[in-house]
Structures are given as structure tokens and as C-alpha cells.
């Protein structure tokens, strides 16, 4: 039972205090005038004021409620290092006994696991969720059994009771980690990109040599070893070897005694891109198709185009002096001898031998292809003549021979069965809707891959590899009809774009390729091939274990499967003569970025609650009761605040001054005051 006097005023408190002031002034005036009844009149006024304040006598029937203590046990990966899990288990057992012996106390145990998506230790989130489920007025204290490495401290709630950190770990712990401070997602092929690395020792590291070895491996190749100073930022220039994804692994060998080697490795994935694609387009004569090629190449901001059109061939004799022509002389020597290696692609568009390019220049072009260059020939009627570019040193690299026949009949280009699997011509849309072309140069003895055919299945587009380079032959000069929308047009721009990019060795257009795309810990493995069947893909996991996966053909030429990586790290894929590497997740998960036990992270949260930060290495602290607002921790002890919470079962209220009593007392005091003053 709890008894309380409450006030429920009949008028606002301002009115009551105003009347009280008037009453006080009246009593003072009566006293000044010497009236003998001033005290009785004051008592009558006091009774009336008390009646206006509405005093109520309240009796409550209360049931006491127990205190609640929240205990969060950090079972994340970083708190399992060394003997921290043993410390955690021993502390849980002793703390359970202490809390059981504390009267009128309930304990809420909260287990904290690794956050989803590599978010680390979400301790504050766990406490917020627990507080949302419990009455805050009953929380006597919050105890965290953790290494102090918390990654959501910015989400700390307002705490109703002291927060204590009982920290695992030892003062002798130390760890070495590798940090990549900056790693761009893209870099230009052939140009150095700078990565900043740092090898750092934390904790009670042994005083050995100030240097540490660093191993660098690109795309799973055997690593190269370097020696770097510890505790210093190192700028490492790196040149990407190829386009597409480059997987670079940095590893510092694990030292004896350090907490973990999981943060000794860093995986960096950088996409290699070309700065500018340099293309030389040589048009033998003006025609509608040359503008199509020019528009295609100029529409790509990444292409540097050098375009020459031969407007006035040497055999043309019209009597106009050369110095009066507004033409640019064709810089044959500069382009085909001095700067030919600067170009990624050379296109001959309806070019024929007219003595402009000597045989030695064309022989240099053939050598350029063998050493890794690319040549595309868009053939017109000139290709079938005696002056054909085929009848030059280029014949050694061209993928087909002209028969000297030019077919002037309408036909609809089509994709061959092999072309359905080739990335240049696969999935170009509904072939039946394509417009017709009106000319085809007959070619035979094709070498390489015939991916498109024309009239009566004659080869139309032939692709081939020569040495380290690539060549393509398009047996028609009427592709421009599609861009003009003739008979509905066709995918002319997409076809020519793919063709140009395949010749420039863009990774996404390789006809034989193996790669993987990662989403979290799951990878999507894709294999592109021109063969009808493929073998299983062998996946080598970071620990060296291998798994063989069977792929299914999703579309012609593209095979696919999925794989869930059991751990974070570098995975190697192989099938036949194709191989690839991919990194799943960060090389060092967030839980292993910082592994040293620390109080620095939680101190700003604990300090306002006057809680404690104690090492479990010094033993499990005892529990004491402390008043709210008082220091809640000391040497070897932590405090809990008794909340004295209760549940109200019933409430009974009654008037402390009923109206009849007020009237009786006020009348009595006024009457007596009047009678006394009357006797005078």
C-alpha cells in the first residue's frame, strides 16, 4: 500500500496564487491597523484556498517488478581469435552465477553474430532491439562481453542505465595487417596506375626487423616477392597486362604469434580499359558506305579516327596542277612505316592497288597483323579485279580468296550456324526482318570462321586469327543500306561495332572465354565457346580444395552455372585451355580489419552512463548496487542501478476536504473573528 496526497485544483493555479497574494496583503493591512481578528480571518482564507487546490487522498496497491540486466555476448569472428572464446565462456558462467545471486533480477542474454553483408559487429543495433522489447524503467544495467571492435557505434541509442564493457583479449596480443589505401576500379591499359599500400603492426608486436615481405600475384600467376618497410605508406606503380578484369592479390606471409593471417591479404580487382582506340580508315574512293564507317567510328568518343579517302587517284589526268588542288597528300610513309604500330585497327574500305601504297608498305601491314595488329577489309567490286588488294603481300593474311565474280542480285544476309555461337554475330535479332543487300563479292577457300553468308549460302563475313593478330573480310560494300533503312534496314551499327571491337581484342567479344560474375559469396560462371560441347569447370577454392561443376547451355555458344563460395578469398576457374580468377568478398572481412581489443570505440558511449571498461584478463568483476547518476564502476567491480519498478494493481482516491467541512471551518473562523472584533 502506498499513500499519497495529490492536488486537483478547481481553478487554474495562477488564480489560486493570485488569491493567495491578495489574502497575504489583506492580513498585512489588518495587522497594520491593529485588528484583533486578523489571524482568524487568515485561517478562514487559508481553508478556502486549500479547498480551491483540490487535495485528494490517493491509496495505491502496488506489486514490485524485478530489475532487468541485458548481457550481450559478442560471438563475431574477431572475438573468436586466440583464446577469446575461452575467456567468453568462463565469463558467461561466472556472470550467470553473480546475476542469479542478485535478488529481484532477471537476465536477458543476447548473442551477437557477424552482421549480414560484411557489416561487422552490430552491437549497438542489438542493444537497441533489446531495449525496444523491454520496459526501459526496469533496465538496471547493460553488460557487453566483447573485444570492443564495434562497427555501428554511430547507431548508439539513449541508454537508461549504465553500460559496461568487459573486454576480451590480452595486453600481449599483436597482429600484422595489410592495408590498401587507394585502388581504382578502372585503369588504362599500358599506363601505370598507383596503389598505396601499408603494412602495419598493432599491439605488442615483437621488435624484429622493420621490414616485411610482400607477395604480388596478378590473375593467379606465381607471385613476385618484394620487401617493404613496416608502418610506412608505399606508392606502388602497376601496369595492367590486359583489358577487362585484372585480379591482383597482395599477400604478407603470416608471422608466428600474430592473432590472424586473414588481414594479411588484399584482393584488388581493376578493369583495364583502353585510353583511346586508334583506327586508320582508308577509303579507296568516295561511296555511301564510307560515310557509314566514319559515322560509326566517330560516334564512339573512345576512338581516335584517322580517315583518308582517295579522291584523285594517280592515273587521273585532268590537267589541273597538283599545287592547285585542295587535297591533302596521303602520308603513306608516315602511316605505314613509321606509325603503323600506333594503330589498333586498320580498315581498307573498297581499296584497290593504284600504286599509292607500294608492296613494301602492304608487306609491312601483313607483318603488323602477325605481331598483333588487326585489319578489316570491306570489299567492293575492286576486290574482284586484277588490282585487288588480295593480289598483294596482304594475301598471306586475308582469310579468303576472291573468284573475280561480282554478283549484282538482291539477297538477304543471314547468320551461319557457327555465327549463331560467335559473339560478333550472335543474338543480332530476327534475321527474317533484315533488309536485302544488292551486291556480293564471291569469295572462296575461307580460312577461320564464316559467321555470315549471303546469296546461296556463299561466305559473306569471314573472321580469322593470323599469328597474334586478327583479320576480317566483309564480302560486300552494301552494309550501308541497313543504315538507310532500306526494306526495314538491319543491325548495321551493332554488327560493325562488334566487328571492330572483336578485332581490337575487347574481352567481352572473345569467342573462347571463361569468366565469372560475383554477387556476394555467389558466383555466376560463364563459358563462351564455338564448340558444341564443353567439359566441367574446375573451381579451386582459397584453401586448395577443388570442385567440378557441369555447365548448361543457356543460349547457343554460352554455357552457365552457379556456385556458392564457402569462404572469402581468391577462386581459380579452369576448363580446357581456358582459365580465370575471381575474388569473392573482401580479402580481409570487416571483422578482421581491426583485430586488437580496444576500449576506444565504445568509450564515448559508456562515459555518459558512468559505466566501466574492464579487461577480463584481470578477472570477472563483482556486481554492486549504485544509485542513479553515481559512478557505476571501479577497480574490480561494476554497478547496477536498482530501478524499484512496480506494477499498480489498484488506485483509490478520496477528497481530503469535503465541501461541508470547508464551509464549516471557514464559517467558524469568520464568525469568531467577527465576534472578537465586535467586543472591542
UniProtKB/TrEMBL annotation:
Give the residue spans that cross the bilayer. Answer: 12-31, 38-57, 657-675
Entry's CDD domains? A4_beta-galactosidase_middle_domain (cd03143)
Q: InterPro entries in the record, alphabetically?
A: Class_I_gatase-like
Q: Which UniProt keywords apply?
A: Membrane, Transmembrane, Transmembrane helix
Q: Kindly provide the name given to this protein in its UniProt entry.
A: Glutamine amidotransferase domain-containing protein
Amino acid at each position: 500500500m502506498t499513500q499519497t496526497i495529490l492536488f486537483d485544483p478547481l481553478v487554474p493555479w495562477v488564480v489560486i496564487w493570485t488569491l493567495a497574494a491578495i489574502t497575504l496583503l489583506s492580513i498585512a493591512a489588518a495587522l497594520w491597523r491593529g485588528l484583533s481578528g486578523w489571524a482568524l480571518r487568515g485561517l478562514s482564507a487559508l481553508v478556502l484556498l486549500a479547498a480551491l487546490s483540490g487535495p485528494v487522498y490517493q491509496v495505491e496497491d502496488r506489486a514490485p517488478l524485478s530489475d532487468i540486466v541485458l548481457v550481450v555476448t559478442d560471438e563475431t569472428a574477431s572475438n573468436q581469435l586466440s583464446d577469446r572464446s575461452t575467456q567468453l565462456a568462463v565469463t558467461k558462467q561466472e556472470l550467470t552465477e553473480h546475476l542469479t545471486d542478485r535478488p529481484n533480477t532477471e537476465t536477458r542474454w543476447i548473442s551477437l553474430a557477424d552482421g549480414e553483408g560484411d557489416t561487422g559487429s552490430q552491437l549497438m543495433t542489438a542493444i537497441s532491439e533489446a531495449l525496444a522489447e523491454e520496459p526501459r524503467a526496469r533496465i538496471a544495467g547493460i553488460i557487453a562481453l566483447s573485444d570492443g571492435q564495434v562497427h555501428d557505434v554511430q547507431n548508439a541509442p539513449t541508454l537508461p542505465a549504465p553500460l559496461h564493457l568487459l573486454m576480451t583479449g590480452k595486453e600481449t596480443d599483436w597482429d600484422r595487417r595489410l592495408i590498401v589505401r587507394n585502388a581504382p576500379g578502372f585503369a588504362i591499359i599500358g599506363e601505370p596506375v598507383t596503389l598505396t599500400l601499408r603494412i602495419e603492426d598493432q599491439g605488442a608486436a615483437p621488435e624484429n626487423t622493420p621490414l616485411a615481405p610482400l607477395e604480388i600475384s596478378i590473375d593467379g600467376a606465381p607471385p613476385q616477392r618484394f620487401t617493404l618497410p613496416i608502418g610506412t605508406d608505399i606508392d606502388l606503380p602497376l601496369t595492367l597486362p590486359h583489358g577487362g578484369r585484372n585480379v591482383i592479390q597482395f599477400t604478407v606471409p603470416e608471422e608466428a604469434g600474430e592473432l590472424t593471417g586473414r588481414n594479411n591479404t588484399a584482393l584488388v580487382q581493376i578493369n583495364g580499359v583502353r585510353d583511346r582506340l586508334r583506327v586508320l580508315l582508308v577509303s579507296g574512293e568516295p561511296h555511301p558506305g564510307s560515310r557509314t564507317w566514319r559515322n560509326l567510328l566517330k560516334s564512339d568518343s573512345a576512338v581516335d579516327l584517322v580517315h583518308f579517302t582517295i579522291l584523285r587517284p594517280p592515273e587521273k589526268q585532268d590537267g589541273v596542277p597538283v599545287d592547285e588542288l585542295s587535297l591533302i597528300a596521303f602520308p603513306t610513309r608516315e602511316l605505314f612505316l613509321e606509325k603503323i604500330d600506333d594503330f589498333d585497327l586498320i580498315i581498307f574500305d573498297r581499296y584497290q592497288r593504284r600504286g599509292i601504297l607500294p608492296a613494301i608498305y602492304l608487306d609491312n601491314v601483313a607483318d603488323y597483323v602477325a605481331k598483333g595488329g588487326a585489319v578489316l577489309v570491306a570489299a567492293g567490286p575492286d576486290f574482284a579485279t586484277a588490282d585487288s588488294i588480295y593480289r598483294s603481300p596482304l594475301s598471306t593474311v586475308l582469310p579468303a580468296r576472291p573468284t573475280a565474280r561480282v554478283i549484282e542480285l538482291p539477297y538477304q544476309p543471314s547468320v551461319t550456324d557457327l555465327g549463331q555461337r560467335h559473339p560478333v554475330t550472335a543474338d543480332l535479332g530476327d534475321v527474317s526482318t533484315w533488309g536485302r543487300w544488292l551486291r556480293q563479292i564471291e569469295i572462296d577457300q575461307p580460312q577461320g570462321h564464316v559467321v555470315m553468308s549471303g546469296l546461296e549460302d556463299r561466305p559473306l563475313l569471314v573472321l580469322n586469327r593470323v599469328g597474334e593478330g586478327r583479320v576480317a573480310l566483309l564480302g560486300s560494300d552494301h552494309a550501308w543500306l541497313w543504315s538507310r533503312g532500306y526494306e526495314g534496314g538491319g543491325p548495321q551499327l551493332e554488327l560493325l561495332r562488334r566487328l571492330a571491337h572483336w578485332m581490337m581484342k575487347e574481352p567481352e567479344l572473345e569467342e573462347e572465354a571463361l569468366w565469372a560474375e560475383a554477387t556476394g559469396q555467389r558466383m555466376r560462371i560463364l563459358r563462351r565457346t564455338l564448340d558444341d560441347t564443353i567439359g566441367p569447370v574446375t573451381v579451386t577454392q582459397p584453401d586448395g580444395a577443388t570442385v567440378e561443376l557441369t555447365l548448361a547451355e543457356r543460349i547457343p555458344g554460352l554455357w552457365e552455372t552457379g556456385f556458392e563460395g564457402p569462404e572469402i578469398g581468391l577462386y581459380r576457374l579452369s576448363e580446357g585451355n581456358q582459365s580465370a580468377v575471381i575474388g569473392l568478398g573482401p580479402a580481409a572481412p570487416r571483422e578482421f580489419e581491426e583485430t586488437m581489443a580496444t576500449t576506444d570505440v565504445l568509450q564515448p558511449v559508456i562515459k555518459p552512463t558512468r559505466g566501466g571498461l574492464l579487461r577480463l584478463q584481470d578477472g570477472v568483476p563483482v556486481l554492486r548496487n549504485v544509485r542513479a547518476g553515481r559512478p557505476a564502476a571501479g577497480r574490480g567491480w561494476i554497478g547496477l542501478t536498482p530501478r524499484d519498478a512496480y506494477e499498480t494493481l489498484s488506485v483509490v482516491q478520496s477528497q481530503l476536504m469535503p465541501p461541508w467541512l470547508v464551509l464549516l471551518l471557514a464559517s467558524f473562523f469568520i464568525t469568531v473573528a467577527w465576534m472578537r472584533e465586535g467586543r472591542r
